[in-house]
C-alpha cells in the first residue's frame, strides 16, 4: 500500500519551479504581440508582487495601436574587431521588471528575489541592480544584452541565474518573435 503523503510530495514542485510558473501565468496578461514577460517579487517564500509587460495604464497597447519599434545601434569589440549590432525594441511597452519595481515598495525588495520569464535587458538590469534585490532568476535567455547584464550583476554581487531544466505551463506558452 502506498503512503499518500509521499506520493503527494513526489509531485510537489520545488520553489524555483513554483515561482517561475507564477511568473509565466502573470505573463498571460500581456498584450504584446512580440513577447509576453512576467515577473514576480519573492521575499523568502512569500510572494510580494507580480507584473507583466505592456503599455502604460489607459494607453492603447500594441495590439490596438501597433508596436512602436525603435532601432538602436551598438558598437562592440569582438576578438579585437569593432562590430556594429542593430537591435530593435518596442518603446511603447513598459517591461515587466520595470512595472514590478514601480508597483512594489523598496522595503519589500531589500534582500528579495525576482523571478522573471526572460533574462532582463540592459535597462531592466540597471534598474534591478539599484532596487535592493539580491537574486534574479530567469528562464528564457536574451542574447542581445546578455554579456553586459552578466557583468553588471557580478559587479553588484547579485545572484543571476537561469532556471533549468524547466518547461513553462502549457497555458502560458508563446512563440517569441524577437
UniProtKB/TrEMBL annotation:
One of its GO terms (cellular component) is cytoplasm. SUPFAM superfamilies: Cytidine deaminase-like. GO terms for biological process: pyrimidine nucleotide metabolic process. GO terms for molecular function: dCMP deaminase activity; zinc ion binding. It holds the Pfam family dCMP_cyt_deam_1. Its cofactor is Zn(2+). This is CMP/dCMP-type deaminase domain-containing protein. It comes from Paenibacillus agaridevorans.
Amino acid at each position: 500500500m502506498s503512503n499518500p503523503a509521499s506520493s503527494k510530495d513526489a509531485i510537489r514542485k520545488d520553489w524555483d519551479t513554483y515561482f517561475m510558473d507564477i511568473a509565466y501565468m502573470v505573463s498571460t496578461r500581456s498584450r504584446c504581440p512580440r513577447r509576453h514577460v512576467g515577473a514576480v517579487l519573492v521575499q523568502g517564500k512569500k510572494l510580494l508582487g507580480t507584473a507583466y509587460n505592456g503599455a502604460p495604464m489607459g494607453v492603447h497597447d500594441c495590439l490596438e495601436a501597433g508596436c512602436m519599434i525603435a532601432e538602436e545601434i551598438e558598437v562592440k569589440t569582438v576578438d579585437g574587431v569593432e562590430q556594429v549590432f542593430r537591435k530593435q525594441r518596442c518603446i511603447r511597452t513598459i517591461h515587466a521588471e520595470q512595472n514590478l519595481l514601480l508597483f512594489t515598495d523598496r522595503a519589500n525588495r531589500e534582500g528579495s528575489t525576482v523571478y522573471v520569464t526572460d533574462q532582463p535587458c540592459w535597462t531592466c538590469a540597471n534598474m534591478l541592480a539599484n532596487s535592493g534585490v539580491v537574486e534574479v532568476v530567469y528562464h528564457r535567455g536574451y542574447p542581445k544584452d546578455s554579456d553586459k547584464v552578466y557583468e553588471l550583476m557580478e559587479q553588484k554581487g547579485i545572484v543571476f541565474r537561469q532556471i533549468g531544466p524547466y518547461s513553462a505551463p502549457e497555458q502560458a506558452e508563446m512563440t517569441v518573435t524577437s
